[in-house]
Batch of 2 targets.
Target 1
Amino acid sequence: MKQTFGRPAGLTAILQRYCPGCGHGIVHRIIGELLSDMNLREKTVGIAPVGCSVFADEYFNCDMIQVPHGRAIAVATGIKRARPDLFVFSYQGDGDLAAIGTAETVHAAARNENFSVIFINNAIYGMTGGQLAPTTLPGMKSTTSVKGRDVVKQGYPIKVCELLNGLDGPYYLERCAVDTPKNIIKTKKAIKSAFQYQLDNRGFCLIEILSMCPTGWGITPVQAKKWIDEVMAKYYPLGEYRNQAKEAK
Amino acid sequence: MAEKKLMYGNHALVEGVIYAGCRFFAGYPITPQNEIPEYMSIRMNAIGGVFLQTESELAAINMLFGVASTGARAMTSSSSPGISLMQEGLSYIAGADIPVLVVNVVRGGPGLGNIAPAQSDYFQATKSGGHGDYHTITLAPNSAQELFEFPKLGFELAEKYRNPALILADGLLGQMMEPIEFTYEPIDPKTFPEKEWALNGCKGRERRVVRSYDLRVGKLEEWNWRRNEKYQEILKNEQRYEAVHCDDADIVVVAYGTCARVAGSAIKIARDNNIKAGLLRPITLWPFPKDVLSQLSKKVEHFLVVEMSCGQMVEDVKLATEYRSKIHFHGRPGGGVPAPPEIFQKIKQAIGGAK
């Protein structure tokens, strides 16, 4: 019998500890497949942040480094500058990339550093138990905004692709989602482009991925998928925000 | 004889970093060390190295974490407030057993303090400045020559023990112009052997992971004890110091860096005045040269510790001498620099007060 589906070489055999319905596993799978398909695995250094994906250093079957909260992009800069021949990606959540690591994100984008950033936006701090994230939607409840995010007191969410698109530096910015098979295929296509642009020395690529966190959101996995489509993607519109490959044409 | 050149201490340090085969510098401007990144930017660009002016010291130290995790040499320099920002990164780097080199051109503190020479970051440098159980190998140069030589020594110790190393200087040392002897040939980084822990792609081998965490019950405790064994090795092997006229001394001044230069003049005045004074200069602040101080304390009655702080290293002198001798202290915090006659007076007082 022919095997048509299995674990890609880019992922380890370790059982992932993510919650049921979480989007991390889907994005891990996409990256794992691309590391194999694009023949990158043996020249890759991946960067695991602090957050739910802290254990990504166990899941990706390549050299990995686990770094301080918010500093993944600075570490990526160091690795890529020291060894431009290596393939470097960082995998970060919203707290990591858009709160404590905002400065690193903005400045690496402005310098157009040549690596790939995978940014998981689930609008909540999952690892620490569901606190307000920089991407928590107005009115959305969290354990530190129990009546919903009050924009007067807690300010507005940060739209990372829109923010970075205000800079001249970045090469490629796209927002995707992993709520439906169609969107998952689009996400894989976007990440593949980002990886290829790095191989072509084009510079800073960031793929923002709207990702389900049913545990943090207090709803079922099915409701979570629906919520991305009906609510989250309305606030964070999907699509390509910057692609200098196309602008150059 | 090797070539000699008149150089600023800060420039000598940059040459020392480049001679040591380091090809990566990241840093954020702060006085009084700006000559280091300025001169470094010229030198790194000239030799095809990487110079990065970062958005913060947080970014700089984490860039070092990345570079060093690939096995390459990487360094940054800053001054006290910036070094405080780097403590998070240093803790992770120490926790991941990665070698990097950091230079702290210490200035007056706490807070913004001032930009005058100081030695008030001794505790931070030697007692694990960030969180967790760790130490930073700390070297204290007292001349432009040592500023040239210590980057190589720092990298070698850092790599031997897989631990961050720190050079603790101050603005005065960096601004002094002194003749430098280029005591060794520049090292080509291509000649460094590959490190068995470096992240460089898992072609033909098992994948490697650099991390500073272990959530499994009891495992972090085991790991920390293993690191402690390394620290015990460092304590045993790497205590460095300079002893001047200590053999017949009735009083030994203990001072490092700038203070040791001044104290060197002060003990000459003392000897001219028939006081048998010596100087013990710690070169490694961690590991602290406690063995020589312990030995000296069995025959020397008085120690005078001179620091540009309210008294930090003096605690280590007390521990090393186990209170066998009388420990006197003279401190100049907040940017004060003692003069030789001032220290000579303290020597006289210390000896006289005991009679």
Target 2
Amino acid sequence: MVSPRGPRSRRHERAVGTSQRVYRALLRAYPRELRDEYGDEMVRCFRDLSREALEGDGRLGLAALWARTLPEWLSTALKERSTMLARNAYRPVVAVALGTVALLVIPFVGMRISNDWNWSLFDFIVMGALIFGTGLAYVLITRKGGTMAYRFAVGMALAAAFLLVWINLAVGVIGSEDNPANLMYFGVLAIGFIGAIIAEFRPRGMARVLFAMAFAQALVPVIALIIWKPQVTSGVLGVLTLNGLFVVLFIGSALLFRNAARELTAAGAGPQG
Amino acid sequence: MGSGEVAGKRSIDPRDLLPLTPVALNVLLALVDGERHGYGIMLEVRERTGGSVRLGPGTLYGAIKRLKEGGLIEESGTRPDPEADDERRSYYRLTGFGSEVLAAEVERLDGLVRAARRKGAFPAQQPSPEGA
């Protein structure tokens, strides 16, 4: 297997090294459990396959290996993720579903005893999806444990996101629910969603994401004031106050995440980036 | 094992884990001759199937994980040739239970082949080994 260290061999080794690094980066698509146990072996295997392909058919061989590997990587990563999800989340998901039903009983009973409460079937469906989605997100994010600070941070961030969506769907934070300015709040949620995926829900990264959300949240009324130039009334001040409340919630969550990151570092869990 | 390769803890009856997935069957077959590391399993499967089955790392290690969890294979503490190999590689071997499951699966497949042969389902029918 060992070839003389000629220029061709060095070129091959460079290509193998690059191939290996790219494959290691792709491993992040697999669940952490599989990565921790077999990640290094998978990379070594792929390095051997790359070396074999290069020695056999040169760069064309390596390209063919990648053409076979990428679809396999995608399908197995999805399969492993869904298997892990089904294995770990079955009971908590049932608990969240039951909790959702229990919470929906409140407006259901409220409609029976008060005329002020008037929800349509659509309202129940939307609220059910919101509660279930928020609860499920909490269960999935905190399922591997984490410190108390981390759990509180996740809870606070999700509660703020839940309220933001609910208020926007019901009455709208700015003006009414039909005011297009309210669409900007979905940008705040998008920052949280995309940022959390990039940060892999690690506390230090999540702290940055929540600070970014707080900043974006504060920016929304400023942009709305610049574009629509409304008269400064009590309504405007109310919007600013409500926004301030969300900013405080996001910053509070960010600080809790930062605290959780410090606790982990102090406990010797290594860098939590 | 049929749908998920290995469902969880070791089953008392090997037949409970049947049918094996093609990947699990190939991995177990590769380990019949002795212990191998992941790349060795890939090579054995590829050569034995004439290149028609090529296991990628994701497929292989997903199967290895489930087979290990189910007690069908285990990591070997020894190395066949410590001099000639990367010491960080893990070698895998069949357990006694794994051999039983493999035997049960082969028997099941053999029964299927014989049934298909009796019904003339083969494109080019060959005389059966028993001369029937």
